[in-house]
Each structure stands twice: as structure tokens, then as C-alpha cells.
Amino acid sequence: MNAEIPYLTATGNLPKILDAVQKAGAPATFNVDFLKDLGFTSSQDRPTPKLFKYLGLLDGSGHPQAAYREFMDSAKAKKVLATRIRAAFDDLFLADKNAHQKSAEQLKGWFRTKTGASDSVADKIARTFKALATYADFNAPTEERAAAPATPDDQSRGESERGRVEVDSTASGGRSGQTGASKSHIGLVYRFEIHLPDTQNVDTFRAIFRALREELM
User: Fold this and answer.
1) Which long-range contacts link 37-41 to residues 24+ away (Cβ below 8 Å)?
2) Which residue from 88, 58, 91 is spatially nearest to 208, judged by alpha carbons?
3) Phi/psi at 58 (nearest 5 deg)?
4) How is the chain split into domains, by residue range?
5) What mean pLDDT do residues 152-179 have?
6) How many percent of the chain have pLDDT more than 70?
7) How many CA atoms lie within 13 A of 201 on its CB side?
8) Secondary structure (H, E, C), the chain
9) I need a labelling partner for 134 at 20 to 30 A (CA). Which of 85, 123, 176, 200 fits?
């Protein structure tokens, strides 16, 4: 998580801005001028493009990214926002997986410690985070990559594999009965699939692999 977190001095218009983004087309560049075109002319709303960049909805030049276009779909906008919040504030969710349920007052201390900001700025960061989290839907089921259905060839190979094991085991038992020495050994292979979070923070990956190593050891 980047410690330089943008924030709004007042969050009252943030839900309205998020609603307006879903109704408008994707601009070539999301900037203060486009924000004004949406009807938000207050100086308090001007940090919104920076906030969207921090969430990964825009690139560094303000160009809408894939996540921005996904967010434009009102049917999944709140789920998309929850995903982007988890990625942008990965350190916070690593410290507390239910951080989105905390109040701004409860979060203020964490942000002050993490960013080194003053009490006033930390409070604004916490309130901006809370406004985003309140709008987002963290209860929506996460998308899991479904396993590909087995093809007839896969099923045939599986039956063939099972057949070889059964034959080998039977053959081994027969030989063992005759010689008392030969036994079959079946090796087991375990595969672990890890779904890593969408983040560029190396410390997050290190923490995940360290925890996995400790569990396996």
C-alpha cells in the first residue's frame, strides 16, 4: 500500500460521483474538467481523480483502466469497487480482514501510524476510506476460476490410470505372496493453488508465502 493516500476534505458528494460515473461514458481522460462536466464543481471534489488513480480505476495520466469500465456496469460496480479497495489498501486488510466494517474513528489511528500524517489528515483519510467502503459491496461472492469440465479423453485417461494402479496393486500382492519380498509403492503428489491479491506490494506476497511455509513445515 502506498503511504501517500489521497483523500477528500468532505465526502458528501462521493456516492453521487460514483453514481454519475456509471451513468456517463468513459472519458479519454478523467480530470477536474470532466468532474465539472458531471456537475461537481466544488473544490472539495477535486482530489477525486487522484483517488481514482490510487484505486487503480485510472492510470497515472488519468486514462480509464479496465476496472473503470467494469465499474461503469451498475450491476457489478459495487463489487468492482470492493475489489479495488482491497487491492489499494492491502496492508490494512492484511492487518484486519474486516477493516471495511470499522468506523472512521477506529481507522484513524491506523492511518496516522501508517502514513505519519497529522491527526487531522489521518481523520480525512479514514473518512474517505469509510465513504468508499460504505458504497462498495464486500458481501458479494468473489469470482473463483471454475475448474474446466472433464473431457471424454480426460475421463478415459483417469480410468486408465486407476486401472494401472489396481492392476499393479494386485500384481504386487500376488508376487508378495509368492516371494515375500516384492511390494508396490504408490507415490502421491499434492498440488496447491494460491490466488494472490492484486497488489504490487512485495511485503504482502512475502507475508503470504511465509505463512504458507510455516503451515507446511
Assistant:
1) 40/13, 40/16
2) 91
3) -125, 155
4) 14-135
5) 47
6) 67
7) 19
8) CCCCCCCCCCCCCHHHHHHHHHHCCCCCCCCHHHHHHCCCCCHHHCCHHHHHHHHCCECCCCCECHHHHHHCCCCCHHHHHHHHHHHHCHHHHHHCCCHHHCCHHHHHHHHHHHHCCCHHHHHHHHHHHHHHHHHCCCCCCCCCCCCCCCCHHHHHHHHHHHHHHHHHHHHHHHHHHHHCCCCCCCCCCCCCCCCCCCCCCHHHHHHHHHHHHHHHC
9) 200
For 197, other C-beta atoms within 10 Å of its C-beta total 14
The pLDDT tens digits of the residues spanning 68-114 come to: 999 999 999 999 999 999 999 999 999 999 999 999 999 999 999 99
Between 151 and 139, residue with greater pLDDT: 139
Task: Kindly tell me the sign of the dihedral angle through the C-alpha atoms of 5, 6, 10, 15.
Answer: negative
The span from the CA of 42 to the CA of 205, in Å, is 40
Average pLDDT along the chain: 81
Would you tell me how many other CB atoms lie within 10 Å of the CB of residue 79? 20
Nearest to 54 by CA among 155, 128, 156, 160: 128
Instruction: For residue 175, give every residue at least 6 positions away whose Cβ sits within 8 Å of its Cβ, in sequence order, or none.
Output: 182
CB 147 within 8 A of CB 125: no
